[in-house]
Design brief:
This protein is an all-alpha fold. It has ten helices and no strands.
Length: about 280
Amino acid sequence: MREPNAIVNPVLLQPTGAGASLRRIGALLRRYVYLLRSSSVRIVELIYWPFLQMLTWGFLQKFLASTNNPYAVGAGVLIGAVLLWDILFRSNLGFFTTFIEEMWSRNLGNLLISPLRPHELVMALCIWSVLRLSVGMIPVALAAFVIFEFNLLDLGLWLAVFFAMLVLTSWSLGLIAAGVMLRYGLGAEELAWSLAFLLLPLTCVYYPLAALPGWLQYVALALPPTHVFEGMRSILLEHRFDPGDLWWAFGLNMFYLAVGYAVFSWLLSRARDNGSLLQIGE
């Protein structure tokens, strides 16, 4: 029997095991569902920007098709690129904005002094980013089919693989952005917001790899999304695809995820040591 005045390490009292971990992740996901459900504006915002982008590039696609441009006729390359880019960008946005909202509300410190572990927080953010992405992208993909007769499912089973590769990349970016915010606070918010756009000109979203200078092509090939967008164009324009490119994308994603999580964990431990977690907020 424990002595009345004995000091007990609170970590030892935390529920352990996979079941307890899943319950903590589920509790955090329920919190995010309640936040989204409580605001119709949030739901509209998830659909509004992807829909606007799809319309803009879709009408450009129709114009190029009317000029008999071989890059556009019957292939839907631009619309496909927009939808795939939005998968990456919106998934990254779902991860990062959810994290930064915890900082805005000064709730991050509360979460991290609870039994919730950092890897459980990351898992909840990853799952939630995919759920948010689904809410926004499914209606937009349906609208692209109705308005422009572009069926994203024309990519076949490769669509699921492309989706997974882009989401993995978005998590890497989200972890690095979250780490930057932990290190530099809300003063680095603009830099963290724009991190995903750094990839836009380098990953050949709207043009083939051959359009880049030779030395820059090596940089582009070191980024997983480049292999996805090149693969999308190969399928839609040439009806072929080399699966070896996806193995490269998968390997690169695993590397960047490991680096992203290592950076996030290191900066989080530093923020805990210097006590800045409870000082970050609006």
